[in-house]
Design a protein that fits this description.
- The structure is a single chain.
- By secondary structure, the protein is mostly helical.
- It contains nine helices and no strands.
- The radius of gyration is 17 Å and the shape is globular.
- The chain starts with a helix and ends with a helix.
- Pfam families: Cad.
Length: 201
Amino acid sequence: MYKTILTGVTAYISTGLDYLVILMVIFGRVKHQDRWLVLIGDFLGTIVLVGSSLALAFFLGFVPAPWLLGLLGLIPIFLGIKLWVQGDDDDEAAIASKVTDPKSLIGSVALITMATCGADNVGIYVPLFTTVATNEIPLILVTFAVMVVIFWELGYRLACLPKVAAVLDRQGRYITVAVYILLGLYILWDNGTVQHLLTIK
């Protein structure tokens, strides 16, 4: 159980560090009483991304050999290298301008969540859901839900601490790169892909 929870936490953090900066930008523009609307929008966007990943994982689950599924670990490795080389492309000014109207805040946050995290989240979650046991998925989903709340609260608190936010903004990309690559290597190893390729003559 603890391994499953740790896997879920690691996967979420690997895709959520850059989004934490986005949350700080959002909280810098919304009123204190509207921060709950941000949480609802965050949940809606995350549900769409996780649901899409589960659907893709379901179809990929028909691949017969586990080591073939392990090749999906190359996706987070690719994302990590891409992030390292190209950097982030989120426009913070554009994001901030979309959350100034409380009436459309939930929808705006949901769209921002899907737009800024879409490719990365699906790229990490599909290999994860494809390679874990089916009975572990509900626990991972609960872990994701808890992490959404934790990151939402962290984003709000860090928005009040400019120095901490500045450090996270500078170093967050490199931490994310490391986690992406390590997670990809773990998927390759845990599914026997590396071992299989090493035994091919």
